[in-house]
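Annotators were shown the component list below and the corresponding predicted structure, then asked to write short factual statements about the assembly.
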Amino acid sequence: MTTKLKEVDVLLVGLGWTGGILAKELTAAGHKVVALERGGMRSTENDFAVPRIRDDLRFGSRNDLMQNPAKDTLTIRNNPSQLALPMRRLGSFLPGEGVGGAGVHWNGVTWRWNDNELKVRSLYEERYGKNYIPADMTIQDWGITYAELEPYYEKFERTAGVSGKAGNLRGTIQQGGNPFEAPRASEYPLPPLESSYASELFNKTATELGHHPFPCPTANASRAYTNPDGSKFGACQYCGFCERFGCEANAKGSPHMTVIPIAMKNANFELRTHSWVTKVLKDSSGKRVTGVTYTNVMNGQEFEQPAGLVVLCAYAINNVHLMLLSGIGKPYDPVAQTGVIGKNYCYQTGASANLFFEGKYFNPFMGTGGLNARTDDFHSNWDFDRSKYGYVGGATLGAGMTNGRPLGYRPVPAGTPRWGKAWKDATAKWYNSAMNINASGAVMANRYNYYDLDPTYRNAFGQPLMRMTFASKENEHKMGRQIAAVINEIAKAMNPTHLNPASARSGSWSVVPYQSTHNTGGTIMGANPGNSAVNKFCQSWDCHNLFIMGASVFPHNSAYNPTGPVGALAYRAADTLKNVYLKNPAPLVSA
Amino acid sequence: MTVMQRIGLILSGMLFVTSGALAADAAHGKKLFEECAACHSLERGVHTVGPSLNGMFERKAGELAEFRYSPAMKKSALPWSARTLDIFLADPQQEIRGNRMPYSGMAEARDRADLIEYLQAATK
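Structure shown to annotators:
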C-alpha cells in the first residue's frame, strides 16, 4: 500500500554534490526542500575516523561505500547484437551510495571543461572540415559556453577547496600553471600541494622533451582552509586514502562536510535517508511531473511524495535509469536514431606505464588523490593537430603519487609471477621504488554506445535493470596508440631499471577491471529537444518542472574528470531556479 | 621516553615554551588554529571529528565521557597544560602512540607557543 504524503516545494532525488548544492542554495532562498537519499547518513566523525576508515579490504577491495549490486545493478554488453548479462560485482566503475554520494569517495580532481568540449562539433568542423567527424560519432555542441560557466566553476572550486596554480588569469599566461587552460577570473582558492618525487622526475623529463607539466588542480586542501560558506577544512595529511574512502581530516572537499550540513541546519530542509525513488510521476498531460514514488528500504513501506519541482541528483547512471523507468522523454533507438533518453553514453580511456628504479625511493604511503603533475599538450591545447592521428578529443598525461594502499598498490615488473615467493620478493623490493605515468583519455559519443532498459533482468524492486551497451571505438584506439607512444618516450628518457611500457587499449571494453567512475551521458543537454533531454539550464524539455543534475547531461566525455562541470552546472541551476524558474515556473528555453 | 619524562627533561633544562624574549603572539595563534578548526570546536559540548577544546586545560586527555576517544588517548590520561600540549603538538603520534588525531604535527616551536597562547584564552 502506498502512503500519499503532503506536497513539498522542491524534491531532490539523491544527496551528493549536486543535491547538496541545491539543498543549501534553495533552502537559504526560503524554499522548502526534501531530499530522498537511498543510502544512509554519513559524517566524518561517525564514519571516517581512523583507524577504521583506512581499511583497504573493506573499502578498497569490498567497496563498502558503493552501491550494492545485489540490490540494483546494470546489465552489460559491447554491442546491440549481444545478450547483456548483469554485472554481479562492481568492477570498471563504482557508483557511490549514501549521503555525500561519490563526492565522499572521489580523489578530488577538479577541472574546468572548456569550449573544446562545450562546442566540440562546431570547433572540429571549423578546423578540420565537415567530413572529419565520423558519421557514427554522435557528438554535439552542449548549448552552453565556457564564459557562461566560468563564475560557477569559481564558486565550486571555492566551496570544494581546490588546490592548484592558475595557468591563465584573464588571458595572461601564468608561470607554473596549465598554459592551455581557459581564462580564469581568479587564482585557485588554495596553492598547489607539496609535490611528490614521482612528479618531480616526470616534470624534469617531460619539460626537457617539450611538454608543459603543471600541478593537477584538486580538492585536497594544501593547507587549512575555511570556504566562503564557513565550512572548515583541515590540511591534507598525504595519507593516500582518498579514492574509495572518506577523508578523516576533512581535507578533501566533500558535500557531507560543506553544503549538506549547512542545508541540514536550515529548518526548510528535510533529509530522508534509506529512501529509494522508484519512479517520477507525470500528470495526465505528460508536460509536468507531480512527484515521485519511493520505498523506505529499511521496512519496505512505499510512499508517494508529491512535489512542485523534482530535481534528479543521483549518480549519472541512476538518473538515466529513473528517466527510462518513468517513461519521461523518448527512449533512444540506435537503429532508427530516434529518441534521446539513453543516448550518448560515454566513458573514458587511457594508457599507463610503470617505471621501476633501483635505488630511488618514492614513499608511496605519502600521497593524495590529486597529487599529480599533468600535461595538457594533447588535450586542451587546441594547436595540437589531431588530423595527424585522425581522432577527436585528447588525453592528459602525468605522474604522481595518489595512494600506496597495502592491497591496492602492488607494482611489480612485467614477467613477475602473479603469486608465490617470487611475487612476494618482487612486491617487497619494488613497493617503494616504482612510479607510474598515466594518460586519461576522452571518449566521444557513438551511435551504438547507449543505455536502455534490460528486457530480462530485474532489480530488488522488480524493475528492469538498466542495460549498458558500450565498446571502445576506433577513435579511442587511435588516441590510445598516440598517447601510449608519448608515455613510452618520456618513460624511456627517464631511464628506469625496468619499464612496463604503456600500450593502447585494443578491442571493445571489459567491465571487470576497475578503470574509471566517470560515466557520462544518457540525459544529454543541447540546443533543441530533437537532440537532447535537457536544455542548457539542465531543465527537461518534456516536463519543465523536472531538472537533471550531474554527468548524465554531458553529451560526450572529456579526458578531464567530470566533477568540475558537475559542480558548476549545479550552482548555475541553483541560481536559475532561485532567480528565474521558481518565481515563474515555465520552460526556460522555448523549444 | 614517556611524556612525563619528557616534561621533566624540559623543566630541568629550563626550556620554557614562552620566555620574555619571545612573547607569544595570540593573534598569530588564532590564525594557526585554522589547522585545528576542521575537527575541534571551542564551544562547550560541541564535539565533531575531535572533542571540543572548551575547558581543555582543566582536563586530562581522554576525560570527556561523551566523546569516543581512542584507547591510546584515554590510556595516556595526560593532564593538559601549555607544556604537555606543546610536546603533544610537536609530534602527536610520537607522544601518544596510536591516537586517532589525523594531524602530523606543528614543527615550529614558535608557532606552537603562539597557538597555545591563543588556546589558553579561547578555551576558557
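Statements collected:
1. The two ends of chain A are 39 Å apart (CA to CA).
2. Chain A touches chain B at residues 44-45, 49-51, 223-226, 232-235, 237, 239, 248-251, 257 (CB under 8 Å).
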